[in-house]
């Protein structure tokens, strides 16, 4: 791994990884700011800003931006998440200066034209409508909404139609000036790139970025609450999401949670896939996941099943959770570690995946983490640590349940919560 890091006088951090055997470069700007940094009045503005960045600058029209990058065979895109936003490109190595220029242009000179804003609001309203028509998107949005009730972290990233319609260019500029500052931004490139040359290009083109926010960034501490939210819909299947408060990135049990999620539902050999789908045929899709944020996390199990199988599905899933608190086999840990190692190494064969990975590590930990160090952390995970974590995670915290579809046969939350009570408490009650 050949990662080089330079902090420019402006405070902007530039990171590169040279992959000289390639002919292309993946590069982008990652901002440590997302939907969670919005005020109540700004709900949805982080995502709208990401769209508007491509809609014209002082030097380029929206069409110019699209044509210039595609004239050289390049790609340009962006994404907004709960805690980060990214703008990225992939070009041949000779066209890195053009990509840097375009990225700098859209982030420092965006026009936020009224007519373009009107059109883009309409596009986002369609996007919100499409998301609301997609049950497996809705079940996740509703899960976050009830798990973190009344908090920014629990709100849908897209915003609401009413709020999106209300935004003005001044509000967008206000959010940008408060959050898109050099101390919160990382310019990362992976591929056929020279670090010193790239740093000079970035320093020259990104000189217009503010070095400090016009007002302190908004970021309220997360409070996991949990609960039950269900929406009856006339669908062929029911989307179900059962989850618990997971671990933040910096917590000791973060990597342990990643391994546990992999063992329970990380692939075709996982416990849930084998028991729920293969052995019992209770659903066509089931998996487990663990998402980490800066101060909280989510450990979840998602399944999609027909209404008639719903009464059997949840008890089988809960039974597998109980089993995980009792026994984890070493071979399962070894398999999960092998899968994570393969993902790390395969990701290094893609400059885009590698740039994204480096950017996330810089935002979270302030440095790039070598694969060897990552595997050392995973090597310290034992069967005892995993069973202990499963017991605390699944049976000593408040669960969250989200369901969308035909839900009349889904057990009441009181029954589900009772089945998820601590095995020790259940044993005492039985005696």
SSE topology:
Blueprint: E1 3-7, E2 13-18, E3 24-31, H1 45-52, H2 62-71, E4 75-80, E5 85-92, H3 96-108, H4 114-132, H5 135-147, H6 161-166, H7 169-179, E6 185-191, H8 195-205, E7 227-232, E8 238-245, H9 254-265, H10 271-279, E9 285-292, E10 297-305, H11 310-326, H12 330-347, H13 351-365, H14 371-379, H15 383-395, E11 400-405, H16 413-419, H17 423-430
Helix pairs in contact: 1-7, 3-8, 9-12, 9-15, 10-11, 11-15, 12-14
Annotation keywords:
431 residues; alpha+beta; Cytochrome Bc1 Complex, Chain A, domain 1; 17 helices; MPP/UQCRC_Complex; hydrolase; metal ion binding
Characterization of the model:
It comes from Rhizobium wenxiniae. Residues 14-160 form the Peptidase M16 N-terminal domain. This is Putative Zn-dependent peptidase. Belongs to the peptidase M16 family. The strands form two sheets. Strands 1-2-6-3-5-4 form a six-stranded mixed β-sheet, with helices on both faces. Strand 1 (3-7) and strand 2 (13-18) form a beta hairpin. Helix 10 (271-279) runs antiparallel to helix 11 (310-326) and helix 12 (330-347) runs antiparallel to helix 14. It has 431 residues and is an alpha+beta fold. It is globular, with a radius of gyration of 23 Å. The chain contains 17 helices and eleven strands. It has two domains: 3-205, 2-Layer Sandwich (Cytochrome Bc1 Complex, Chain A, domain 1); 227-430, Metalloenzyme, LuxS/M16 peptidase-like (Cytochrome Bc1 Complex, Chain A, domain 1).
